[in-house]
Amino acid sequence: MRAVIVAIFVAFLISLFVTPVAIKVFTRLKAGQPIRAEGPIMHQGKKGTPTMGGVVFIVATVIAYVAGHLALTTLPEAQIAQVTPTITALVLLGLMVFSGAVGFLDDFLKVRKRNSAGLNKRGKLLGQILVGAVFGVVALYFPSTAGVTVGSTALSFIRDINALEVGKVASVVIFIFVVMATTNGVNLTDGLDGLATGASVMVLAAYALIAFWQYRHWCADTDYARGGAYCYEVRDPLEIALIAGAAAGACVGFLWWNTSPARIFMGDTGALGLGGLIAGMAMATRTLLLLLILGGLFVIITMSVVIQIISFRTTGKRVFRMSPLQHHFELAGWSEVNIVVRFWIIAGIGVAIALGLFYSEFLASVT
C-alpha cells in the first residue's frame, strides 16, 4: 500500500507543478489548440489555448511508477521480487506512452497546419491498431514463471468467464478493438474543460481499488490461497494498482489547470494515452466487459456519435443538435460547467455500480 500512496502523491505533485511550466513552453512554441469552425460558437474563445498537455501526466505517471518501486525497496527480503519491474508494467505503461505518441503526432500536425484536421482517420486508426496488436501479443504470449499472462484467452467480466474461451489470436483481436474503443471514447469525451480528465480520474481510481483488492486476495499469495480462500487469478496486481493510482494522481494535478476555464488542454496526446491505459487496465484485471459500466460515460458519448452518424446517413436527419453529446447540451443552452459536473455525476454512477458489482461477486463467493 505504501508504494501505491507514494506513486499517487509523486504523480500528483509533478503534474500540479510541471503543468504551468508546460503552459508557458507550449504558449511560447505557439502550440495552441485549433478550433473547428463548425463547433459551438462559444468555443472560438478557446482558440490558442495550449494543447498537448497530456505529455505532462504521461511523464508524471512513468516517473511516479519508478518512485513507487523505490518505495518497494523497503519491503522484507521475502517480498523483494516485487521490486523488479514486470511485463505487466511494460504493457500498461507502453499502452499509455505509445497511444499517447499517436495522439502527439495528431496534435503536432494540428498545430503545424493551424487547423483541426491533424492526422487523418486512417493514420490514427492504423496507429491504434498497431499499438493494440503489439502490446496485446506481449500480454498474451509472455507468461510469468508461474505460467500466468497479463491478458487472458477468455472474455472476462468480474473475472475470466471460462465458458467464453476464445484463444490467443482472437483475444489479441478483441483487445485491439478495446484499445480503439477506449482511446476514441476518451477522445470524444474530451470536448469540454476538465470533462475527460475528471471522468478518467474516477475510472483509474476504481481500477486502483480493484487491483489492490485483487492483490489482497491473490491466488499467487500461497499463504492466502492455501486456506482455500476465494482468490483472483491475475498477474502482478500490485503493479496494476500502482500504475492506476499514479495515473489518477497525475490527472488530478493536471485537472487543477485543465478545469474551466482551462489554461491547457490534454489534446489527443492525453486522450489517447489515457484510453490506451484504461484498455490495458481492463485486460490486466480481467474485467473487460465490466469496462462498459465502469467507463459508462465514455460509452454514452461514443454511442451518441454512432447514433448521429447512422441517423443522418439513413434518414438525413440528426437526433442531436450536435455530437458528441456534450455539444448537444451546449447548444441547448446549458453552461459548460453545468454539463461537466452533471456528466461527472454520470461517470461516478457508472463507477459506483461497477465497483458494487465487483465487490458483491466477492461477497457472494465467500458466504
Polypeptide structure, described:
This protein is an all-alpha fold and 367 residues long. The chain has 13 helices and two strands; from the N terminus they run ααααββααααααααα. 66% of the residues lie in helices and 2% in strands. The radius of gyration is 20 Å and the shape is globular. The protein starts with a helix and ends with a helix. Its EC number is 2.7.8.13. It is found in: Cell membrane; Membrane. The chain crosses the membrane at residues 6-27, 48-67, 87-105, 125-143, 163-183, 195-215, 240-257, 289-312, 339-359.
End-to-end Cα distance: 27 Å
Q: Oligomeric state of the chains? A: single chain
Overall morphology? globular
Number of strands: 2
Rounded radius of gyration (Å): 20 Å
What composes the largest sheet? 2 strands, antiparallel
**Order of strands across the widest beta sheet?**
1-2
Spell out the helices and strands N to C: HHHHEEHHHHHHHHH
Extract low-pLDDT stretches.
Answer: none
Structural class call reads: mainly alpha
Question: What is the domain tally?
Answer: 1
What integer is the average pLDDT?
Answer: 90
How much helix is in the residues? 55-70%
Proportion of residues in extended strands: under 5%
Tally the helices. 13
Protein name: Phospho-N-acetylmuramoyl-pentapeptide-transferase
Organism: Plantactinospora endophytica
EC number: 2.7.8.13
Cofactor: Mg(2+)
